[in-house]
Design brief:
DUF6589; 3-stranded mixed sheet; DUF6589 domain-containing protein; 9 strands; globular; mainly alpha
Length: 573
């Protein structure tokens, strides 16, 4: 975390902090469904040293239940957005056939125990800083010994950059004296909030375009008068809300076209069944949110039979017929891809909020391909590391422990109020900065350490005092703003332009550029080079050799959020 103080020396005082001071704040959580005998590090490391990496068909190709879950999650978003903006469907909305299938549901009324640590002046911006921070927390603050720390695995959930530093430290100390000093006990996973941050950033980069490109995100931002999202540093939460409104507008117009009534009001009055809504939603997914596919070629008896080896090392490229078909109506092609990508973002964020990691796990192979196609190579590799651990390295019992603790619920309100562990620490860092400022700009890191270690108790005290004095502490929720006007504006414009219907040879007056199908491109790159490079790096890690990480091809993420984008948040569980 980075703390900014006054630029004037007189205001900071001779003993006060520098203009910007940096340190690290971590938080521990009580593990759900964990037993000590399932967390032994020895069997995990034995499996790691025997690993040969990942195979696409064996480890990445989704099984039939995963494909059904992925398909069902996308379908469930479509009627939900109709129900959110069109009255008259309140009764049918509760039908079980319009609900998500439970894959690994979060327990009701479970409150995740949280134990914040003292913030330190150790910067985890380097591999050395990361190693020092681990020693500070476990050896100095918790008074543990290296031998006692070398027996059990420690789940560690962080952003991608922190995980990369920890892996670098593991390679650096590969031949050290015990499992703690080698940092083998730290078993890594990605934070789901940072996963969403990077996914939305990649989609923004792929679909942004310009104001003059009909159907691009910039075009819709201008239509909705959200001009601030057109700058280089958009606010993440505002951006996510805008993307949701764009998706709602696209789906609302699709419902108008497919419902079979003169209007959505008339459709609601006809009282369609849940199965009818689901059937229409499936049709919308296939016709409005699926990339173009070329027509099936007629069999030619004179042509030789050419078989394609799925395990070939040659790079797979999208079908030329598909590209030619898309070029005949670029705007329509781009809208279909944008709808598909926004559906995935919405389904992912909903699965996190519901606390169902099973649904998220069903998304992971698709997300890895999307990140690769978007040029976000580091997060693609991060997902591959997690899948490698989940399916190859970790014992089945420890893999389940990791699954059950990727998502937390602090409020105890259960599904619908869950979050990734890294989002909770974002909130806490915001509280810490406010409290430190309230105590004066000459506050020290010692005082910050005291505040950070007791931040949860301070929040409880504020609530108790507010309840005793019958004053407002802060809103426990917020009123959802009515965005129907913006959604209708998007839907009306899409209908007026005819963007959701294919027009052969549509004149491209707006000079739209063909958007790349990131899923198809990512799958091709995954098969041709990414997996081979990943497996090579895994073998290097097993031998204790350093390797060069892949660089991102998309621009560096530049969001405005509640905390600085330089606040990298290690979360140790």
């Amino acid at each position: 975390m980075n703390l900014s103080t006054s630029i004037f020396v007189e205001q900071r005082g001779p003993s006060g902090p520098a203009k910007v001071t940096s340190g690290t704040f971590g938080i521990l959580y009580g593990l759900r469904n964990a037993r000590a005998e399932h967390m032994l590090i020895v069997p995990i490391m034995q499996r790691f040293r025997k690993s040969q990496g990942l195979q696409f068909n064996l480890h990445l190709r989704p099984a039939l239940p995963q494909l059904r879950s992925f398909h069902n999650q996308l379908i469930m978003v479509i009627p939900d957005r109709l129900i959110a903006h069109q009255p008259g469907f309140e009764v049918v909305a509760k039908d079980p056939s319009l609900q998500h299938m439970d894959r690994r549901p979060f327990p009701v009324r479970w409150i995740t125990p949280e134990f914040p640590t003292r913030a330190t002046i150790i910067e985890e911006a380097t591999t050395r800083g990361n190693l020092l921070y681990h020693d500070e927390i476990y050896l100095n603050q918790f008074k543990r010994t290296t031998d006692s720390l070398s027996k059990y695995a420690i789940p560690s959930i962080n952003d991608q950059l922190t995980n990369a530093r920890i892996r670098a430290g593991q390679i650096l100390r590969a031949r050290d004296t015990n499992a703690w000093n080698r940092r083998e006990v730290l078993q890594l996973a990605f934070g789901l909030f940072h996963l969403c941050l990077n996914l939305v950033w990649g989609i923004l980069h792929a679909h942004r375009g310009t104001v003059n490109m009909t159907g691009s995100l910039s075009y819709f931002f201008s239509l909705m008068e959200k001009t601030r999202l057109g700058n280089d540093h958009p606010d993440y939460h505002t951006l996510l809300a805008a993307l949701t409104q764009i998706l709602d507008g696209l789906l609302l117009n699709a419902w108008r076209r497919e419902c079979g009534s003169v209007s959505l009001d008339a459709f609601a009055k006809s009282k369609p069944t849940a199965q009818q809504l689901r059937d229409i939603a499936t049709r919308i997914l296939n016709e409005y949110a699926t990339p173009f596919t070329p027509p099936e070629p007629e069999p030619d008896s004179d042509s030789p039979d050419v078989s394609v080896d799925s395990d070939s090392d040659e790079e797979v490229t999208p079908c030329a017929d598909t590209s030619e078909l898309a070029k005949q109506d670029i705007a329509h092609h781009n809208i279909r891809l944008l709808t598909r990508d926004l559906l995935i973002v919405t389904a992912l964020t909903r699965a996190i909020s519901d606390g169902d990691f099973g649904r998220i796990e069903d998304f992971l192979p698709h997300l890895a391909m999307m990140f690769r196609g978007l040029g976000c190579n580091k997060y693609c590799t991060e997902i591959l590391h997690f899948l490698h651990n989940l399916k190859v390295v970790w014992t089945p019992e420890f893999a389940d422990i990791m699954r059950d603790n990727m998502i937390i619920c602090i409020s105890g309100l259960g599904p619908g109020h869950c979050m990734g562990v890294d989002l909770n620490i974002e909130h806490l860092i915001g509280y810490l900065k406010n409290l430190l400022q309230a105590k004066g700009m000459t506050s020290t890191w010692d005082r910050l350490g005291n505040i950070s270690a007791s931040i949860v108790h301070l929040q409880h005290v504020k609530k108790k005092v507010a309840a005793a004095l019958e004053t407002a502490y802060r809103n426990t929720g917020h009123t959802t703003p009515n965005t129907s006007a913006l959604v209708s504006r998007v839907a009306d414009k899409v209908a007026f332009k005819g963007l959701q219907q294919f027009e052969d040879g549509r004149v491209n007056n707006d000079r739209c550029k063909l958007t790349v199908d990131v899923m198809l491109t990512g799958e091709a790159k995954m098969k041709s080079s990414t997996l081979a490079t990943f497996n090579k790096n895994i073998l290097s890690m097993i031998k204790g050799h350093a390797f060069e990480e892949e660089e991102d091809e998309c621009p560096t993420m530049a969001y405005g959020t509640t905390t600085s984008e330089d606040d990298h948040l290690p979360v140790v569980t």
